[in-house]
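Service request form, structural biology core

Requester: graduate student, group of Dr. S.
Request type: structure prediction, single chain
Budget code: on file
Notes: please return the result as structure tokens.

Sequence provided:
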Amino acid sequence: MPIMKLTLPAALAVFATLTTSAPAVTGLEVMKEQENRHESKSEYSRALMTLTDKRGRKKERILHTWAVKGSDGLFKTLLKFSSPTDIRNVGLLTWEQAGAADDDQWLSLPATKQVKRITGGSKKNLFMGTDLAYEDMRAEELDAHTYEIVREESVGGKACWVIEATPSTAKEKKESGYSKRNLWISKDNYLTVKADFYGRSGKLEKQCSFEKPVKVKGQLWRNQVTRMHRIPSGSTTTTQLTKLKVDEGAEAALFTQQGLKRPVTDN
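Core staff response, request fulfilled:
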């Protein structure tokens, strides 16, 4: 077939198309857009949590989570177990703090009638025998990390940005159990599809998958299933939503140390 020659105006038009593409999105911009799309004013969820050890033995728990956004734009979150009976009413209260300041966290242990404050150095520890660290239970700290798009990749047929999240403040570098995290963010709805967690030594320690996305309303989506696998132990913590309420309000007194001590009720 003969090669068609472009006229000069046409050639210039093609050249302009190739050289004036839209500026690339940054990792921080992706993370901010994720926050804008999937942030609710208040939320309640009930979930079945299954702990599976390397031999396949399972333990089941029921976890309730409440969250509310304050007038200052910061979130307060309460997690509480309702079963099994030996951990019923064990709860974790988190108050998000502005900027790079540490979030406040308290753990309630009814068996000892104590409310224990979780200090910065303890936030890398595992929460109640799960594969989740205390720092995994807080909101993403955009001001305490740098976010760089390192590549693009397809996961389960979904085009994703792969974003490397690295602690950027002296406090986060000191207190976090992670040297970095790799986050796969779906381009179509900005949900996290999976995440890899690297320990202080730089070795891959945990992998998390986020499954069964469902649209709640508008641009707000939630993953119904989350699986956190801890490589050294071979154990996995799976959390599956069984109930979800969004933007229906929340009692302010619930997000206090007194509220943390209150017996759990099934909403």
